[in-house]
Design goal:
By secondary structure, the chain is of the alpha+beta class. It has a single domain, classed as Alpha-Beta Complex (Ribosomal Protein L22, Chain A). The protein is 28% helix and 24% strand. The protein contains 6 helices and 8 strands, in the order βααβββαααββββα. The strands form 2 sheets. A 5-stranded antiparallel β-sheet has the order 4-8-7-6-5, sandwiched between helices. A 3-stranded antiparallel β-sheet has the order 1-3-2, with helices on one face. It is globular and about 50 Å long.
């Protein structure tokens, strides 16, 4: 399901339950040693997804542990993202020469708990969420907004890991295309820098509603190194078979 939202150069893996056998590395065991069983199962299955995705990219199995601020630590030349919610776990990875950063998030297609929408949404988002819920209640647009902001944060953080304070829900304004399956996130704070020095002021992403879930994904194509014209075009061409290239507040 998640692969429908991502360019072809990104490898992904997903699971709908925790039945997949997966032995944790010692470093991962340390992370999860004091967790309740539910958290241990979702953590373990998410690592199973991460290993599968890395394998499809040509990498051996390695531990994937949270870094100092909670974001998963990938091999040095890999970017990636992990998500899990009730009934779904997924991971997506790519080579950093192809994709500068990416973020994925899955949530149940259910209303947000009371008070959460008002806490995460700026004024214009509150207006369109109310309008979209009235026109198409089959999609929980409030939950989609939350998911999109999670994906924004996951894509933003690797590009600005030292920024304090970290990006807040209120520092990204999201608009959805309810027909085309896309969304645009405008940053209302200083944007992160790509390796060519350019500032990212917005992210574009994709979304879907399927199997009782809402899923969002963002991927930013890497700036080609100097002297290699057309490298980004190669990535875009490779992505055409699975949709266009894509530009939590918790990590996993």
């Amino acid at each position: 399901m998640i692969e429908d939202l991502l360019p072809g150069v990104i490898m992904s893996s997903e699971a709908y339950d925790d039945s997949q056998p997966c032995a944790l590395f010692p470093a991962e065991e340390v992370v999860i040693s004091g967790a309740v069983e539910k958290r241990r199962r979702e953590f373990t299955t998410a690592r199973w997804c991460a290993r599968n995705a890395l394998g499809r990219l040509g990498y051996p199995q390695v531990p994937v542990v949270p870094g100092a601020k909670g974001a998963p630590v990938w091999p040095a030349d890999v970017v990636g993202s992990i998500t899990h919610c009730a009934g779904y776990r997924a991971a997506a990875v790519a080579r950093s020469c192809d994709i500068a950063t990416l973020g994925i998030d899955a949530e149940p297609n259910k209303p947000l708990p009371p008070g959460i929408l008002e806490a995460i949404a700026v004024e214009e988002e509150l207006r369109w969420v109310t309008d979209f819920l009235r026109r198409d209640p089959s999609a929980r647009w409030d939950r989609l907004l939350f998911s999109a902001k999670e994906s924004v944060y996951k894509a933003w953080f690797p590009l600005a890991p030292l920024r304090e304070p970290r990006l807040d829900f209120s520092e990204a304004s999201i608009t959805f295309d309810p027909v085309g399956g896309g969304f645009l996130a405008r940053l209302l704070a200083e944007g992160p820098r790509l390796r060519d020095g350019s500032e990212l002021r917005e992210f574009s992403g994709r979304w879907l509603v399927r199997r009782g879930l809402v899923i969002t994904a963002i991927a930013v194509v890497a700036t080609p190194p100097a002297g290699i014209p057309g490298a980004a075009d190669d990535v875009a061409d490779a992505s055409e078979d699975r949709g266009p290239p894509l530009l939590r507040l918790t990590q996993h």
